[in-house]
Design brief:
Layout lengths: L4 H10 L4 E11 L5 E6 L5 E7 L6 H13 L3 E11 L4 E2 L5 E13 L14 E7 L10 H18 L6 E4 L2 E4 L1
Parallel strand pairs: 1-6
Antiparallel strand pairs: 1-3, 2-3, 2-7, 4-6, 5-6, 8-9
C-alpha cells in the first residue's frame, strides 16, 4: 500500500509511535443499487473504497480522489452517514501504529463520469459492483460494519431522518 508522503515525513520524527489519522470511506452505489468494492492487495479481503485524508483535503474530496485512483469510477458524494473513531490501535507489519477517525460517506456514480470499474493502482487486485445482500468473501470486518451503517443511514434518510450517526458515551446516536 502506498503511504502518503506526509505520513512518511512524520514517521521520520516519531518512529513507530501511535499516529492519529483521519480516514474516509464510502458506500458507493450505482443506479441498480449495487455497491462498489475493491479487493485489497495487502490483505486479499474485499472492502469499501477508503483512504487517508491528506493535509488540507476535505474528507468528501478524499472519497472522489480515492474512488478514481483505486477503481477508475467517478463519484459524487451525497451524504455523511457516520463519524466514528476506531476503538483499537492498528499495528502494521513494519511496526507502525495508527488509530483512525473514520468518516463514512454515501456516494453515487457521477452521471458525467466513468462508471466502469477497473484496477487503478497497486492497492487493489480486483474491483467490481456487488449486490449488498450478496457480498463477496473474505470481507474486512470494518467494511461489513460500515456497509450496515450506510444501509441503516439510507433507510433512515428515506424515512425523513437524514442524520449522521456518531458514538457518545458508548452508545450510537442518530440525531
Amino acid at each position: 500500500m502506498t503511504t502518503p508522503t506526509f505520513i512518511l515525513e512524520l514517521r521520520e520524527h516519531i518512529g513507530h509511535a501511535p499516529l492519529w489519522l483521519m480516514g474516509a470511506c464510502a458506500y458507493i452505489v450505482d443506479d441498480n443499487g449495487l455497491v462498489l468494492l475493491e479487493q485489497r492487495a495487502d490483505t486479499g479481503k474485499w472492502a469499501l473504497v477508503s483512504g487517508i485524508i491528506e493535509p488540507g483535503e476535505q474528507p468528501a474530496d478524499t472519497i472522489a480522489r480515492e474512488a478514481k485512483e483505486e477503481t477508475g469510477v467517478d463519484v459524487i458524494v451525497t451524504d455523511l452517514a457516520c463519524v466514528e473513531a476506531d476503538d483499537h490501535v492498528i499495528t502494521y507489519p513494519n511496526g507502525d501504529r495508527t488509530q483512525y477517525l473514520d468518516h463514512l460517506f454515501v456516494a453515487e456514480v457521477d452521471p458525467d463520469g466513468c462508471s466502469e470499474p477497473c484496477i487503478g493502482d497497486d492497492e487493489s487486485t480486483s474491483v467490481g459492483w456487488f449486490d449488498p445482500d450478496e457480498l463477496p468473501e473474505p470481507m474486512t470486518p470494518s467494511s461489513r460494519k460500515r456497509i450496515e451503517a450506510a444501509r441503516d443511514f439510507l433507510r433512515r434518510r428515506d424515512d425523513g431522518d437524514a442524520c449522521a450517526s456518531f458514538t457518545f458515551r458508548g452508545t450510537t446516536v442518530h440525531r
